[in-house]
Amino acid sequence: MKKQPRSSPRSSKSHRTVSIVGTGSYTPEKVLSNADLMRIVDTTDEWITTRTGIKERRIAAKDEQTSDMAAKAALKALEQAEVAPKDVDLILVATATPDMLFPATACFVQKKIGAKNAACLDISAACAGFLFGIEIAQQFITSHTHNTVLVIGAEKLSSITNWTDRNTCVLFGDGAGAAVLQHRGRAHGVISTHIGSDGQFTDILFMPGGGSRCPITKENAHMNLATIHMTGKEVYKQAVISMLNASKKALEQAGLTTEDIACVIPHQANLRIIEAIADRLKIPLERFYVNLDKYGNTSAAAVAMALDEANRTGRIKRGDYVLMVVFGGGLTWASTVVEW
Fold it and tell me: Which one is the CATH code of 19-182: 3.60.40.10, 3.30.428.10, 3.40.190.10, 3.40.47.10?
């Protein structure tokens, strides 16, 4: 007789809600203003500001790695959550600029913060990575696989920026944001999440060199292949479409309307994109949390950094419904509705 497998011990446990119980962020000391960029490329403060809304961005030191910034943001989130590093079960680092291709940047973070009991892995979903991490963390916690998950978005985009290309070098900055997720009693926490991708658009925002498809050699080193390449108009178009649809999907799944949302935290890429989303969702721009004027586009770190600022400044309060929505290269997109 064929032996029947033993049922999973997780299957008999009740479903758990998942809440963000602590946030943290870190930005490097060096500020690169639009005036500074005028000395590097042919541009002006007016040109950058009117097209992007960005006034300045932060640049990591040469010896400051993605994992350094991630670790600093993580420790702030853990402190706010009153969670010891040893009690973290899983570390997820969303990044397009890992310390190395392997091992995972999350492993470097584990070492730096002393989270010796955590499993570690990186998420490659470009700017959408942090919210992909929120969804992954939710699955691990609701299934009773893990109790405490640390999700980090961290980027050193200055290391892959072509500083001779005025169309892209004005956009990006460095930084990190983090969140601690746990079950929190009767709180609703993360109400709905939606993630998606469309590989038909892999060629509108990407870094062509540095992987197995196109290793960097002495013959192609002068071609700046290990830097960000972007088709701006198409990225703008797809960003608006994907973020709008993702926002509507998350709201529908949550059973809420735009009037219920106290704060929208969008991807901090371009003020024009944010204004377009606000107009199409018919949500006043005043309900959007925007800090890209200070930091530029920090990819996977952007929404995480904005979330921490909104949390620590009192912009979002306990019981508020918060909508976060992002898009990134791939094309990837994600949205989530959270009861704070």
Answer: 3.40.47.10
